[in-house]
Write a structure and sequence with these properties.
single chain, mainly alpha, 7 helices, 85% helix, transmembrane, membrane, MXRA7_helical, transmembrane helix, Matrix-remodeling-associated protein 7 helical domain-containing protein
């Protein structure tokens, strides 16, 4: 009985800031655990990760080097490639949902934006060190490289 009274006195003397800080800390820990689990699931099962690390360690020991530069750059390329694939898939799904009128309006807007960009480039050609023979077809060709 005395223990319960002491506990109630203790909880009664806690400040709101302390309670908020403890609750925030618990929430951050739980969020970190959740994100770790989600990341592990999206990157593959733990068995696959173990197999990958096992094969990587075997290839490193067989080559005699650590190979960390190659694996880091390879992982970075995979991340970039998957991000590109994700963006292009989203863009394609959005394009499929457009009606013919919306597609035509998009093309007209794109032409208007390209012509406005081209005009700005022509006006400020010395600022951007552009050649005098820049034309709108070159700009369109450059745009296709980024799609």
């Amino acid at each position: 009985m005395k223990y319960l009274e002491n506990l109630m006195i203790y909880f009664g003397n806690l400040s709101a800031f302390y309670i908020f800080s403890v609750a925030t800390s618990i929430a951050v820990v739980l969020l970190t655990i959740y994100l770790g689990i989600v990341t592990r699931l999206t990157n593959g099962s733990p068995e696959q990760a173990d197999r990958k690390s096992f094969h990587k360690s075997q290839s490193q020991s067989s080559t005699g080097g650590d190979g960390s530069d190659d694996s880091d750059s390879e992982n970075e390329n995979l991340r970039i490639e998957s991000l590109r694939q994700l963006k292009s898939a989203k863009l394609k799904s959005i394009e499929r949902r457009l009606t013919d009128e919306q597609r035509q309006a998009e093309k007209e807007m794109e032409k208007a934006q390209l012509s406005a960009i081209f005009e700005l480039l022509k006006q400020q050609s010395e600022k951007f060190d552009l050649c005098a023979d820049l034309n709108e077809d070159d700009l369109k060709e450059q745009l296709t490289l980024y799609r």
